[in-house]
Specification:
- There is one protein chain.
- By secondary structure, this protein is mainly alpha-helical.
- The chain has two domains: about 80 residues, Orthogonal Bundle (Arc Repressor Mutant, subunit A); about 80 residues.
- It is built from seven helices and three strands.
- It has a three-stranded antiparallel sheet.
């Protein structure tokens, strides 16, 4: 962002980059991930890891790990720059695609993992219920009912995330 048209534009870009960092940090993703995405989003040309590192004053290892995470979410992509052997990156500028790839696909994976865990706990609970004495049956029933409620909620969220209408809207 050093070579921008004016100091005022550079300052505005820096505020946007810092804001991106604060936003991702508030979601528990860390500040650097938001800063890297915001920097690449505003950049008029692809940037290499060294440029990102220098611009944000963070380590190359941090930038490298962050770019890999952003690539997994399809938030940035690796691009080729003629005459340069370094790896260059540019941001996805379509926010619908970004939400579809980063947020929805991540949530779908997390929901799938939760389903496996719920099934495992339900199986263990059935074994435990068979062994529980009559004095503790009431407590076991509370646990079973709450687990059933969690499974039903999971099914609703899963149906929402896998609804074709969601993909159409995004």
């Amino acid at each position: 962002m050093k070579d921008l048209a004016s100091p005022e534009l550079t300052a505005a870009c820096r505020r946007f980059i810092e804001s991106g960092g604060h936003t991702t940090q508030s979601f528990g993703l860390g500040q650097v991930i938001g800063q890297v995405f915001a920097l690449l989003y505003l950049s008029p040309r692809p940037m290499c890891l060294d440029e990102i590192m220098e611009e944000l004053a963070v380590s190359k290892a941090s930038v490298s790990m962050t770019v890999r995470q952003l690539e997994q979410w399809s938030a940035v992509k690796h691009v080729w720059v003629k005459g340069d052997r370094r790896d260059f990156y540019e941001a996805e500028t379509d926010f619908k695609a970004l939400v579809r790839h980063a947020v929805v696909s991540t949530l779908r994976k997390k929901i799938e993992t939760a389903a496996v865990r719920i099934e495992s706990v339900e199986s263990s609970l059935q074994d435990a219920l068979a062994k529980v004495d009559n004095g503790k049956r009431k407590e076991a029933k509370v646990v079973a009912d709450r687990l059933k409620h969690a499974r039903q909620f999971h099914q609703k969220v899963n149906a929402l995330l896998n609804n074709p209408l969601l993909d159409h809207l995004l």
